[in-house]
């Protein structure tokens, strides 16, 4: 069983996207009665640069201090004008992914909230983006928001893409705990991929998978409405995205666990859903 969310870390670069991430971070913090910490990472100038231009060291150091003061002022402004306030502000220097992950550990964060920026600008260059590196290495769930200017006042419908793996208990428990706290319903979705199959066989396969899904031995959570469905798509990620958007889900819960089924690899289905869906994704790490 998963642990409740007690500490939320919101990482920001003060973009419009990060403001939406703050709205979700604040919503989750209030829902779970959690502490909300804001983190802004200031680029760290290489010591080699100081050695090459000693006269510039004081100027560069001054710019870092000014950036930190500006970041604090921005956070104060957001709190005053939009009512999105944090309990603690952390401003550190260094590589953004490394600092975010280190701060999450230091602060005992149970959830990291970030915007999608950098993960979908160029699909062929996903590795290396801040968000992608966080997803690869985080030890706690990561909520990725989508720059839709959403200000959530409720999350009522949660979608959980699923297969028949034994390790799914982790996803089910996370999703159930979220649904219970948010007073939301759960939908477990299996995507029947059409790619590589003869189309005349898909109806028979569809019926077989649906029967297996409905008969699956799952834990009984009587206080949460749980339903299941099967959909068809050429590719798994397309089926998930289309289903979530067509049926107006508020959140998608997916695991970044590497499984035998290649379509669930981080870098394949999970990554593509995060990159292209307009619905926020709650990504559960492989270490859970």
The assigned CATH architecture of the largest domain is: 3-Layer(aba) Sandwich
DSSP E strands, number = 10
Which segments are poorly predicted (pLDDT under 50) over 5 or more consecutive residues? 118-128, 258-266
Give the total of domains.
2
Assign a percent range to the helix content: 40-55%
State the CATH topology of the largest domain: Rossmann fold
* Major sheet attributes: 10 strands, mixed
Radius of gyration: 21 Å
CATH class of the largest domain, named Alpha Beta
Quick one: CATH superfamily of the largest domain? HUPs
Strand numbers in spatial order across the main sheet: 3-2-1-4-5-10-9-6-7-8
Strand content: 15-25%
The helix/strand order is EHEHHEHEHEEHEHEHEHE
* CA distance, first residue to last residue: 10 Å
Anisotropy-based shape: elongated
The average pLDDT value, as a whole number, equals 79
Would you tell me the structural class of the helices and strands? Answer: alpha/beta
- DSSP helical segment count: 9
Oligomer type: single chain
How is this structure best described in words?
The chain is an alpha/beta fold and about 290 residues long. The protein is built from 9 helices and 10 strands. It starts with 6 loop residues before the first strand and ends with a strand. The longest helix has 26 residues. The protein is elongated and about 75 Å long. Helix 1 links the parallel strand 1 and strand 2. The chain has a 10-stranded mixed sheet with strand order 3-2-1-4-5-10-9-6-7-8, sandwiched between helices. The chain has 2 domains: about 140 residues, Rossmann fold (3-Layer(aba) Sandwich); about 130 residues, Rossmann fold. About 35% of the residues are buried.
